[in-house]
Write a structure and sequence with these properties.
Elements: H1 4-10, E1 26-27, H2 39-46, H3 58-72, E2 79-82, H4 85-91, E3 100-104, H5 109-116, E4 121-125, E5 143-147, H6 159-163, E6 171-175, E7 197-202, E8 215-218, H7 221-227, H8 238-247, H9 250-276, E9 280-281, E10 289-293, H10 297-306, E11 309-310, E12 312-313, E13 324-328, H11 332-351
Parallel strand pairs: 1-11, 3-4, 3-5, 5-6, 6-7
Antiparallel strand pairs: 2-8, 7-8, 9-10, 10-13, 12-13
Helix pairs in contact: 3-8, 4-5, 10-11
């Protein structure tokens, strides 16, 4: 049985932005774009409700994998449909690494899944400006997990730096949950058919499908077969399979690309406005969120909550501190609310 202190040490790894958001709050804590899927996608999913009396079919699964494969110039055998990218992280222990290296600061769910399965795991902590240095990863690690773009730093690692992590006998796992929010999907490895590279993608962020849990893995068929050993039958429901198919079709891919350009413009504007308040915004952000650093951020987050504004605490990410916060990129009207709330909360802190 795992000792209680060890369980307590793992608990911060399971803290996510949704825990910060209460009813009616203005949400900067969760990196989902919007509160519901677009109308065309809702209509598409509603049309599938009449088929829920039958089990999901292999034909539908195959059609979804073919659409994803076409989107990334791969074969359907290199596609594994997932109940959200998080399911892919939960599967990683099935690859049975001897030593897994997780590059931080980054999304914490992969490390939690590996440690919970008693996989020896080492944290590779990148210093500011959080750029990937392949030499920092222990040579003996036979699995490396890295986010690109990285949550919460918003850093986009270069393709060459990622590929430099490859070693004989090592599996490179790249979390590309936010890659479709990057203009041109720059530096993505999703279309790289390499036997030792596993790419995990999420559709929940861009398409506001967090409640439906949709994603997929891309990798060599042998690698995917190892991941699915012991997996339950009918692992995804009909609506999940339909959503993955729909969001991978050319029109949806084009819409996501257009949305990525909007996010880039909103991010630039939001960065300028936050910096005008004297807030340290991590440089070079490329993802739909920003990493902030300011003294007293932990207390500031509480004061923002009293104004109905939710932001993500940063200290549960390895390598960050209580002076860090993460905020989702939003449009001008919501940023107006955040800027006003920040000014008020900081003034309250100075007068306390």
């Amino acid at each position: 049985m795992r000792a209680l202190p060890e369980l307590a040490a793992l608990s911060p790894l399971r803290h996510h932005g949704d825990a910060e958001v209460g009813d009616g709050m203005v949400d900067f804590a969760v990196n989902v774009q919007g509160t519901a899927p677009p109308e065309w996608l809702r209509t598409r999913l509603a049309a599938s409700l009449g088929s829920l009396g039958t089990y999901p079919t292999e034909k539908a699964d195959r059609a979804a994998r073919e659409m994803v494969a076409r989107r990334h110039c791969r074969s359907p055998e290199e596609v594994l449909l997932l109940a959200g990218g998080a399911e892919g992280f939960a599967m990683l222990p099935r690859l049975k690494p001897r030593l897994a290296a997780v590059v931080h600061p980054s999304f914490t769910e992969p490390e939690w899944a590996l440690r919970e399965a008693d996989i020896e795991t080492v944290q590779v902590l990148l210093p500011e400006p959080y750029r990937l240095d392949p030499d920092c990863v222990p040579d003996e690690a036979d699995m490396v997990v890295v986010g690109n773009p990285t949550n919460p730093t918003s850093v986009l690692h270069e393709r060459d730096a990622l590929l430099a992590l490859r070693r004989p006998g090592r599996v490179l796992v790249v979390d590309e949950a936010f890659a479709d929010a990057i203009t041109g999907e720059e530096h993505s490895l999703a279309s790289a058919s390499l036997p030792d590279v596993l790419v995990l993608r999420s559709l929940t962020k861009t398409w506001a499908l967090a409640g439906l849990r949709c994603g997929y893995a891309l990798g060599h068929p042998d690698l995917l077969a190892r991941l699915t050993r012991g997996r339950a039958h009918w692992p995804l429901g009909t609506l999940q399979i339909e959503a993955i198919t729909a969001c991978s079709e050319p029109a949806a891919v084009d819409a996501a690309a257009a949305k990525a350009m909007t996010i880039a413009a909103d991010r630039a504007s939001m960065t300028d406005r936050l910096r005008s308040l004297g807030i340290d915004v991590a440089a070079g952000a490329r993802a739909p969120f920003l990493l902030l650093r300011m003294p007293g951020a932990a207390d500031l987050r509480i004061r923002l909550r009293t104004q109905g504004v939710a932001v993500r605490r940063g200290d549960t990410f390895p390598g960050l501190t209580t002076d860090h916060l993460r905020v989702a990129v939003r449009g001008r009207e919501q940023v107006d609310i955040l800027v006003d709330a920040l000014a008020k909360a900081r003034a309250e802190g100075e007068s306390a």
